[in-house]
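dumping these here so i dont lose them again. two proteins, back to back, each one seq then structure tokens. dont judge the mess
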Amino acid sequence: MAEKFAIITGASTGIGFELATLAAKHGYDILVVADEPLIEAAATDFEQFGTDVQWVEADLSTIEGVDELLAAAGGRQIDLLCANAGRGLGHAFLDQDLAEWRRVVDTNITGTAYLLQKVLTPMVARDEGKVLVTGSIAGFIPGAFQAVYNGTKAFVDSFTDALRNEIEESKGVTLTTLMPGPVETEFFERGDMLDTSVGASDSKSDPADVAKDGWDAVMAGKASIVSGWKNKVQAAVAHITPASVLAEQHRKMAEPGTADKA
């Protein structure tokens, strides 16, 4: 058993898979979770690095799912949390099914906030621990045809900024927000966005590069990191561009059928 223990959510694919790989490579015992059976195969892959690997299939859009994850830790001290689980959804909001957009909200906001409260409380009490939360530069942009997702990431970006201030006296606790742009993962297929300009683009970031940026940032104790220089520029421009302009720009990327116009 290693001295260090990490939990990585949304670890079956994409950024979460790469973060779990980095944690195992750096000598952490890991507990990985996702809401799909693929997490078992991913866990097998992480075992090659010689640390203890546990996995659990749980729905982190529910309080019960988060509790199931924490119970799987068996009371072990959590030294690192990578709160990466998230869900996207494309198309116009008025056309979206309640259950679908509610799950985006419950996964990205409710589940994330509850998990952070449960994990950060003992970290702050002992004044030691590291947390990496996957936000997004989407949180800076009114997401026409991706409105709920962008809104949830605006919450995550803002919430972690506020929470970081609240726990600032706990100098031994690191809370870092990772903010990538579009990443080459299953996100766009799962969100029914393959027929959009952004979904069809071949210029999306490599999840391994994004995970490495996040890992380096949390280990260095940084407050936040925008992954990729193009995304850094886009994030900076978003702060000075009118919301109506940003929404129209996003529409051109995310409206169904725009893949044919790319």
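---- next one ----
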Amino acid sequence: MPVFSRFLRYFLAVAQHGSIRRASEHLRIAASAIDRQILQGEESLGTPLFERLPTGLRLTATGELLYAHGKQWSRDLTNMCVQIEDMRGLRRGQVDIAVPDALTRGFLPRLLRAMRTTHPGITICTHVLDNSRIQNTLIDGSVDLALLLNPTHARGLLVRAHKDFPLGFVCLPNHPVAERKSARFSLAMNYPMIMPEPPLALHRQIDILQIDSNLNIHAAASSDNIQMIKSLVREGIGLGILSALDVMEEVTRSELAFIPISNHDLAPLTLALCVDHSRQLSGAARLVISELEKEFLSPTTQPLPAT
């Protein structure tokens, strides 16, 4: 039996989906039943919860207040349930992780596959987001933990582990630059370049480096997607600038070469395992964090050597 009343469950679904019809499809409940519960709730509270618009339903100020508290009650109930399971010695549940696109390949999928074998009762749900959105997603309680690039200081944000990855030029293995052990950023003036664009985390670092070096790199192409930059490099359009983390798999398979940029004023890209310090984590989440912390100490995720 659901702990929350039908009204609150229906209300949260309508608020989330923006219409009774879409909430009906999500809950698999008749739209008329949902509408009736919403109307009865509004009558009981003595105030409307939604504005009825031609394009759908929009929360009123009262509705916004109820929605915020309703989501918090739902999270608190979930946390309580997993704590009860912890007390019973169970190791199951869902763990939500926010990650940037750079981690959709490589060590993270391998780690999740291994955990599926060792902890089959844990369901791990990964949310691939722009890096700029990940920190807020963690702080607002939408996920249990996050792998974040270049985290900024925020109240409640706790970094459990971190690792630095150098930035460098990326090219085909048969390119003349691939023979170098490292290179200055000024090398970019001699070749067609594929430059990173916002919201990629390394765009800001490259922008600062151009200013500090008094260089204005002419881009043959640019992209806000890591995979597209690597594809353009493979097509021979130019050299890319990425982090060692972005090309770890391709360098291992000798598909691409990575040449670290040797400028001392270029900060590396930091990958951090973060949690919300104020949040009580389930046993399942703590297990996942423990495995991730081991991976951060593993040499398989160390910065790549020059090729």
